[in-house]
Design a protein that fits this description.
Blueprint: H1 2-12, E1 16-25, E2 31-42, E3 46-48, H2 50-59, H3 63-78, E4 86-90, H4 93-96, H5 101-112, E5 119-123, H6 133-145, E6 148-154, H7 162-166, E7 171-174, H8 176-179, H9 188-202, E8 206-209, H10 215-223, E9 228-230, H11 240-249
Parallel strand pairs: 2-4, 4-5, 5-6, 6-7, 7-8, 8-9
Antiparallel strand pairs: 1-2, 1-9, 2-3
Helix pairs in contact: 3-5, 5-6
This protein binds guanosine-5'-monophosphate (G) (2 copies), manganese (II) ion and sodium ion (NA).
The site of sodium ion has 5 residues, from strand 6.
């Protein structure tokens, strides 16, 4: 297919870019970090969503290369920010199968000069689908580098919670499907968020409420004890220059 070869060209010809979405402390509203999100500006078709091209990259064996490029680009930006501001990078489950991942991450950190504790890797429950030992070894190797691990899209995957107890996540990110439209503390979504926050706090993990767009949603997730908030209310994914300006504001 055309799009396949276009994606290979995109990586070479710098049609990919990384945008950054702020994450703020739920009580102080200070910016604590940014999530790096990849974008593809196709020369003919215009912007193509990562929802479309990440699965394609996984299929055609290009995800490791794209993932490493995103990681490097994100870390290069993050070293410019105040040291209290972290960067989060999404990892595809396919990248987890690559034995070289920990050494790639170490090399990127050393090349860019970013301290490991300022890097957070976001993985999804998809990583645990084939519940093999390799995944847990990989998580151990990544944690040994000193970086943080977040469980992304929490609540949307398959229902076993056993991996939460087995895996030393630093943070769980509550999927926006629970947050959006939620304002009533008696609602079903509020109960679910409350349960997730309780579970995370028992396990000494932070929680991010994702997809917060309105003041009502913000008030609710704050009252339910989410530690961090991400969503359009505090900022859409933005170019690196804007992220740098926003990161530097509080410093
Ligand atoms: O930014 P946006 O809402 O368009 O992202 C859509 C989806 O693509 C999200 O699930 C997001 O996690 C994923 N995504 C965005 N950037 C990356 C990336 O660099 N790597 C991976 N694996 N997924 C990404
Ligand atoms: O799966 P993941 O959580 O990585 O997805 C991140 C995606 O969510 C980004 O592509 C971003 O564009 C999108 N996103 C972030 N904040 C909001 C929000 O407040 N509302 C909506 N609808 N999407 C959001
Ligand atoms: Mn994410
Ligand atoms: Na998410």
């Amino acid at each position: 297919q055309r799009l396949e070869s276009d994606l290979r060209v995109a990586l070479e010809k710098e049609q990919l870019r990384v945008v950054f979405q702020p994450s703020v402390d739920a009580s102080s509203e200070a910016v604590t970090g940014f999530e790096a999100l990849v974008r593809w500006d196709h020369p003919e078709h215009g912007p193509i969503s990562p929802v479309q091209f990440i699965p394609l990259a996984e299929e055609i064996g290009l995800i490791n290369e794209i993932g490493e490029w995103v990681l490097r680009t994100a870390c290069e930006e993050a070293v410019k920010w105040p040291s209290s501001v972290n960067v989060a990078v999404n990892l595809s489950p396919v990248q987890f199968k690559a034995h070289a991942l920990p050494s790639i991450v170490r090399a990127v950190l050393s090349d860019t000069g970013l301290s490991a504790k300022r890097l957070e890797l976001e993985i999804t429950e998809g990583v645990f689908l084939n519940n093999d030992e390799h995944v847990h070894e990989m998580i151990g190797s990544l944690k040994a580098i000193g970086l943080k691990l977040a469980l992304d899209d929490f609540g949307t995957g398959y229902s076993s919670l056993s991996y939460l107890q087995r895996v030393p996540f630093d943070k769980i990110k509550i999927d926006r499907s629970f947050v959006q439209g939620a304002s009533d503390p008696e609602s079903r979504n509020a109960s679910l968020i409350r349960a997730m926050v309780g579970l995370a706090s028992d396990l000494k993990m932070q929680t991010t409420a994702e997809g917060v767009e309105t003041q009502d949603e913000l008030t609710l997730v704050r009252n339910l004890g989410c530690s961090l908030v991400q969503g359009y209310i505090f900022g859409k994914p933005m170019p690196a220059e804007d992220a740098l300006a926003l990161a530097s504001e509080g410093a």
